[in-house]
Design a protein that fits this description.
By secondary structure, the protein is mainly α. Helix content is about 40%, strand content about 5%. It has eight helices and four strands. Strands 1-2 form a two-stranded antiparallel ribbon. Mean pLDDT is about 75; it is low at about 1-5, about 25-40 and about 60-65.
Length: about 210
């Protein structure tokens, strides 16, 4: 019976090598020779050279997926940040000058660069203030000027104190809320405000 060769008949089988391929994953201990030792690969030929030089399948390695490190310190900080900022977390990359995906990588266990680690701690402290007060930051809140002509996120990006910056923002928002409530009380006894639809409507005595 004739066989179909996958390589030219003149090829030197002694030069064939099977090399492991690098993978992005953790590796377990290699298991030695899982396949028959003297059997060639697909389309190969079990010739005398193949057997003499001990060629065959190299040991294989089982790949394991990398699981998030739940108790890593930066994962805990990121969970605190997510709990405190909620939906406005999409604005937080500007604190670090990174992409949104980078933040999720930190949440999955990746260690931030040293230049980002302290800012992340300060951001987590700001988030804790919102958690303690039961406040969910909104986009307009994050756009409010807090100090030095900067918003909360701009202050944190410049290395500001997260806890104090968050407290200042809360006080500013509270003053605005108190002022609005006071204005509502002052206007409570007055008639309903004029609506835009009422403008231009003639009064009964207009022709008098």
């Amino acid at each position: 019976m004739s066989a179909v060769l996958a390589v030219p008949p003149t090829a030197d089988f002694a030069l064939v090598r099977y090399r492991p391929t690098q993978a992005i994953a953790n590796r377990t201990h290699a298991v030695d020779r899982p396949f028959p030792y003297l059997v060639t690969g697909t389309g190969g030929l079990a010739g005398e050279r193949f057997i003499r030089h001990g060629m065959g399948y190299r040991p294989f390695e089982v790949l394991e997926s990398i699981q998030p490190i739940a108790d890593a310190p930066y994962v805990k900080l990121m969970e605190q940040v997510r709990a405190g900022f909620g939906r406005t977390m999409s604005r937080l990359p500007e604190v670090f000058g990174v992409s949104r995906q980078t933040l999720y990588n930190w949440l999955d266990g990746e260690t931030p660069k040293p230049a980002h680690q302290e800012r992340l701690r300060q951001l987590a402290q700001a988030a804790q203030i919102f958690i303690d007060l039961g406040i969910k930051p909104t986009v307009p809140m994050l756009d409010r000027t807090v100090a030095q002509g900067k918003t909360l996120l701009q202050l944190l990006a410049a290395g500001g104190d997260g806890k104090e910056s968050a407290k200042k923002l809360v006080r500013i928002i509270q003053r605005g809320s108190d002022a609005s409530a006071q204005l509502d009380r002052l206007l409570a006894g007055r008639k309903a405000p004029v609506k835009a639809a009422d403008l231009g409507t003639p009064a009964w005595d207009e022709s008098a």
